[in-house]
């Protein structure tokens, strides 16, 4: 669906409330942070008391357990006699059970002779259904100023569990301490909230003045302050006028003019991803669309030198990305006056050659100078307090690079994706996966490799042959094959996507070998693409050679040019060939222009494009 901006006829409101809105935003955020801090401190204080209470209760249980385990016979009278002699057991309630959970002693005399099914007792006896052999258990709960503690420990006799000691205590003293501490933390939090509220109001007052200028730019976009509006959809008149969003040069110029004031604001740098529209007579998947997603950057600088430096810096970033990540060799150069961006003083480009011999403009960087600034009134107060116009740049790359990657590296079997950009670098294909241990080994290899690579296991029910073909179609750089015989031999098979070369690798060397193959593959893919480009780059000394090459071959042609647009137009009209760029690395192929024979000024790369 085309991305469009609807013209909003309503006035943008709410400027007067900006200060309040931002103050409230800071207050709410801070309140949430302090609330979390309050809860955290309360929990920490409870955990301190918890640890102290746990040690005390477990120690009491151990004292009783040690005394009772010395008895020859465990029965109610024996246990009652032993417990009565222990003076340190000051708890709210105490139970002693046998190994089946039958209560032999109850300090409150309400459960004597019954089975105690409390979870602490069952866990201490090892009867909680989890296969444990019994251990010390402690649980607690704080509510309404009371700390309820529950502890249980097994009674053992020569390593065997013969019973359990269970104690519970309702401690109001420690509960009061916890309540007092939580109240103190709450009071501190409340004071901090008041301080932050006052700070937020002061900060928002200063910040809102800056925000109003930004909001003014947004209002222009929302109200649709455009020169050209679409009023017809096919043969039907639209009920509302629509503004189609082009690239963002004018939008950012308007924004700069509103927010830029002083040299202290410079350089001003923006980068965004967005969808834009333009007229295309013929669409080609990934390469040319009426609507496309792209990355575009816009900057404003105080001097022409800074603007030129940024322009070339971004061109080098694009070239480096193409070569080091996408493994696509790029030619860096400057566009001719005819091909440069309208209004720019210079446009620089990175050009790539596809497998079919056509050129693809893969990224551009424009130096606007101060021309746009003068048209839009973008001025700033310099250090000497004089008003000066800014110098601007604009640069971008689009999703056409996906198409470039496919057309440079792909083959008849599908994608071939360079390792550094591949979403999945290694695909593990288990062979005869239904046999015991095969899938487990595949998952084990995945977990090992996932520490350094992007890995998946194809554990679908498809046949190995289908999985191999699918992995090739999807362009996974490496396919790892592992089967029962491979597991027995302690090895696996690695298959490269680009050359289909298979290598047997010991399982213990898999990580090292995979890293080595991926690095080699990345390097060789770039070398093959560069070799293809160089083998399809020709030299023409005159128009006869120029025409013969383009009539019989495809690729780049290096030829001299006089600098006149008439020669460019003539070549394009006659051969459907355009100038791609004037490369930074110039060569003196001849002394005269390939078209008119006049003295030549520049060597130019020529080619057919999509």
Task: Characterise the protein shown here.
With 610 residues, the chain is α+β, with helices and mostly antiparallel strands. The chain is 40% helix and 26% strand. The chain has 14 helices and 25 strands. It has a 10-stranded mixed β-sheet with strand order 9-10-16-13-12-11-24-25-23-22, sandwiched between helices. A hairpin with a 5-residue loop joins strand 14 (379-381) and strand 15 (387-389). Helix 1 packs antiparallel against helix 4. The longest helix is centred in the N-terminal third of the chain and has 52 residues, at 18-69. It starts with a strand and ends with a strand. Residues 1-16 have low confidence and may be disordered.
Instruction: Round the mean pLDDT to the nearest integer and report it.
Output: 86
Poorly predicted tracts of residues: 1-16
- Roughly how many Å apart are the termini? 24 Å
Q: How would you sum up the global shape?
A: elongated
Could you estimate the helical fraction of the residues in percent? Answer: 25-40%
Radius of gyration: 39 Å
β-strand amount: 25-35%
The quaternary state of the protein chains shown equals: single chain
Count of DSSP H/I helices: 14
Spatial ordering of strands, largest sheet? 9-10-16-13-12-11-24-25-23-22
**Structural class assignment:** alpha+beta
How many beta strands in the DSSP annotation?
25
**In this structure, how is the largest beta sheet organized?**
10 strands, mixed
